[in-house]
Amino acid sequence: MNIQIFGTKKCFDTKKAERYFKERNIKYQFIDMKEKGMSKGEFNSVKQAVGGLDNMIDSQCKDKDLLALITYIAEEDKEEKILENQKVIKTPIVRNGKAATIGYCPEVWKTWG
User: Which end of the chain is less congested by CB atoms within 10 angstroms, N or C?
Assistant: First the structure.
């Protein structure tokens, strides 16, 4: 397994995801989305794995103006805008190769072994 956890240090579900893998002695790499974020390739891979952009957007995002902008801009501009402003993406994003989940999903992670 090659686990990557994309999230923020303050996100409660990200901490729970880290604990899940720690408790099972599964190595993972934590990527702080406030500092680094996802590359375009990682972003596209996650988007495919979770069934599209709409499943990635956090409707509870604190930046309501940005959320509104992303909701109403043209489809072809949406992806670029989200890639520039990754704070609108739900966390944690947990990747294992081509597989990925958004949010706290231990029922999916246990099938990855």
Answer: C
- Cα(42)–Cα(20) distance, rounded to whole angstroms? 22
pLDDT in tens, 27-58: 999 999 999 989 999 999 999 999 999 999 99
**Euclidean distance between CA atoms 109 and 49, whole angstroms:** 14
Reported as a single tens digit per residue, the pLDDT across 54-89 is 999 999 999 999 999 998 999 899 999 999 999 999
CA nearest neighbour of 3 among 99, 91, 90, 83: 99
- pTM exceeds 0.85: yes
- Rounded to 5, what percent of the chain is helix, strand, coil? 45, 20, 35
Q: How many CA atoms lie within 13 A of 113 on its CB side?
A: 7
The string of DSSP letters for 43-63 reads HHHHHHHHTSGGGTB-TT-S-
Judge contact between 50 and 56, C-beta under 8 A: yes
In DSSP terms, 31 is beta-bridged to: 6
